[in-house]
């Protein structure tokens, strides 16, 4: 069963503007830093595909440097990482490569050299929503996902090395869940990845590092990675909408209640309610800040639009969107403005779509007088829907276009609003199906490679889609197609969208003549 945490869907809490290109890139660099030589003297970043084409506008460059100097994804100093690195004496550079065929759209290789001359390279992929995967170390293919506590050991491919490692772990009472060895050649360099049921202490690490033939032994902490229930099973687990509905029917719980109980199984030691309260607090701040105090974005394409919508409500709302939808749209646009200034936001499920869920849920909650407990269950509901889409399709614009980002966010918001209004689980998923259907095929074509335009306007449309889909379902106008089939169609359409329309800024609105003019006008910002 899927082990995606709710806080990978409504999260991470991060500095904008992009969950995949900013938070995900930073997390890759954090992992590389934990594996590489220390202290670092120099580092070279080679970017591929979407990373290579849009890294300036997304702040990917600053995020990568922030990661190698140890900043967290929600540290507002990410925007100042270049200056901080130079103060620390770190030499860094960036290269773009056209040799990305066969690689994930968001791939970076981080080549590090320590002050003692030792070197290591780590290649990582940003999978969307801040989630990452490490795909190679020193050019040797590996697969580090972080599903379990992970030990990476670099060694020579010689008889007895693996036996010594497994014996050492066994003697310390550490159970091995999986073990995979990746080698360069027979008798050459090799890496073994141990996925463990529990972490290992410094004493055991020190022992392993002294074993014959061992060059490196490090624990790998992949920020934002999934967790696995202690016994390896999840009673409330689900991979599909059909399985989720069956769980709800068997237990008599709502989708939100089911997702909360599942999160408790995944993280029995954690206070999941406190974590969701932190998400809610961050959402309230991100939806209000840019209306209260608008600022120009890094790229100069947006800034002040959320306030304009809010201030226009007395004149326009009655005849057009109505009071609740107007507030929801203004709030959603405010989130994108805050993100575009490298402010702190909640990815939901990505930074590019981060305004849809909080804008919709908070506006409707305010209209019906819902307390924080009801709002929290609506957010748990949104997490469940987003987790299924992430599992069965994609939430990454670089993989599936903007339908994967704003479309998924609209589905999450539609289902959440429906639960907030008292809908049963089947009605919630019907609302989610309609929301996805309305945005099927939506391309990702950010002007100048920035998460600004048309991203902000598409968050506004995502809110309108979510609220109207929820009202249709609550009125008994149900989607004739099952949720899982709609998600399957979304995946199929995403695979059909050309690469030029998947977050590369090479097609669509990004290729319009005036968009190129916007590039030159904003270059000095």
Report the average pLDDT across residues.
92
Q: What integer value in Å does the Rg equal?
A: 23 Å
Give the % helix. 40-55%
- Oligomeric state: single chain
- Give the biggest sheet: 6 strands, mixed
Stretches with pLDDT under 50, minimum 5 residues: 520-525
Spatial ordering of strands, largest sheet: 3-2-4-5-6-7
* Record field, number of beta strands: 12
Question: How far apart lie the N and C ends?
Answer: 47 Å
Count of helical stretches: 21
The percent range for strand residues is 15-25%
Structure description:
The protein has 525 residues and is of the alpha+beta class. Helices cover 48% and strands 16% of the residues. It has 21 helices and twelve strands. It has helices spanning 6-9, 19-35, 49-58, 60-68, 81-87, 161-171, 202-209, 241-251, 255-266, 272-292, 305-311, 313-316, 323-339, 356-368, 372-392, 397-400, 402-420, 425-438, 455-474, 483-496, 513-522; strands spanning 13-15, 40-48, 91-97, 106-114, 119-128, 131-137, 140-144, 150-156, 176-183, 189-196, 214-220, 344-346. Helix 10 (272-292) crosses helix 15 (372-392), helix 13 packs antiparallel against helix 14 (356-368) and helix 18 runs parallel beside helix 20. The longest helix is centred in the middle third of the chain and has 21 residues, at 272-292. The chain starts with 5 loop residues before the first helix and ends with a helix. Mean pLDDT is 92; it is low at 520-525.
């Amino acid at each position: 069963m899927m082990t995606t945490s709710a806080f990978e869907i409504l999260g991470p809490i991060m500095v904008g503007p992009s969950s995949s290109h900013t938070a995900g890139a930073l997390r890759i660099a954090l992992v590389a830093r934990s594996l590489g030589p220390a202290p670092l003297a120099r580092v070279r970043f080679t970017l591929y595909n979407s990373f290579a084409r849009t890294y300036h506008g997304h702040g990917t460059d600053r995020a990568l440097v922030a990661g190698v100097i140890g900043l967290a994804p929600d540290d507002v100093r990410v925007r100042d990482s270049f200056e901080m690195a130079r103060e620390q004496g770190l030499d860094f550079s960036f290269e773009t490569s056209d040799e990305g065929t066969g690689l994930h759209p968001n791939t970076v290789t981080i080549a590090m050299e320590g002050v003692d001359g030792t070197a290591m390279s780590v290649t990582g992929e940003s999978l969307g929503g801040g989630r990452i995967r490490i795909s190679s170390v020193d050019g040797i293919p590996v697969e580090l996902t972080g599903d379990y506590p992970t030990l990476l050991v670099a060694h020579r491919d010689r008889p007895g090395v693996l036996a010594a490692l497994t014996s050492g772990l066994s003697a310390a009472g550490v159970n091995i869940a999986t073990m995979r060895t990746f080698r360069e050649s027979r008798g050459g360099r090799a890496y073994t990845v141990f996925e463990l049921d529990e972490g290992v202490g410094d004493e055991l690490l020190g022992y392993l590092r002294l074993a014959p033939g061992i060059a490196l032994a490090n624990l790998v902490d992949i920020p934002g990675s999934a967790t696995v229930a202690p016994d390896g099973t999840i009673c409330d687990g689900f991979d599909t909408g059909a399985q989720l509905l069956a769980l709800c029917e068997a237990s008599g719980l709502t989708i939100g209640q089911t997702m909360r109980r599942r999160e408790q199984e995944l993280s029995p030691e954690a206070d999941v309610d406190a974590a969701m309260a932190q998400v809610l607090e961050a959402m309230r701040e991100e939806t209000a800040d840019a209306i209260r105090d608008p600022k120009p974005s890094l790229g100069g394409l947006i800034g002040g639009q959320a306030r304009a919508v809010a201030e226009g409500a007395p004149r326009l709302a009655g005849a057009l969107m109505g009071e609740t939808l107007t507030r929801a749209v203004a709030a959603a646009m405010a989130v994108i403005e805050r993100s575009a200034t490298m402010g702190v936001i909640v990815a939901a499920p990505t930074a590019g779509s981060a305004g849809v869920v909080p804008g919709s849920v908070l506006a409707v909650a305010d209209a019906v007088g819902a307390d924080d407990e009801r709002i929290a269950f609506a957010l748990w509901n949104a997490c469940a829907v987003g987790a299924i889409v992430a599992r069965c399709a994609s939430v990454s614009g670089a993989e599936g276009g903007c339908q994967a980002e704003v479309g998924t966010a609209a589905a999450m918001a539609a289902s959440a609003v429906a639960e907030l209004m008292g809908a049963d689980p089947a009605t919630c998923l019907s609302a989610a199906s309609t929301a996805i259907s309305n945005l099927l095929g939506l391309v990702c074509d950010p002007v100048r490679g920035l998460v600004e335009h048309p991203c902000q306007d598409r968050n506004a449309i995502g809110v309108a889609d979510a609220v109207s889909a929820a009202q249709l379902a609550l009125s008994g106008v149900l989607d004739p197609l099952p949720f899982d089939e709609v998600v399957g169609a979304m995946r199929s359409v995403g695979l059909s969208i050309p690469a030029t329309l998947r977050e590369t800024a090479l097609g669509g609105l990004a290729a319009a003549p005036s968009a190129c003019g916007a590039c030159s006008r904003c270059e000095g910002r």
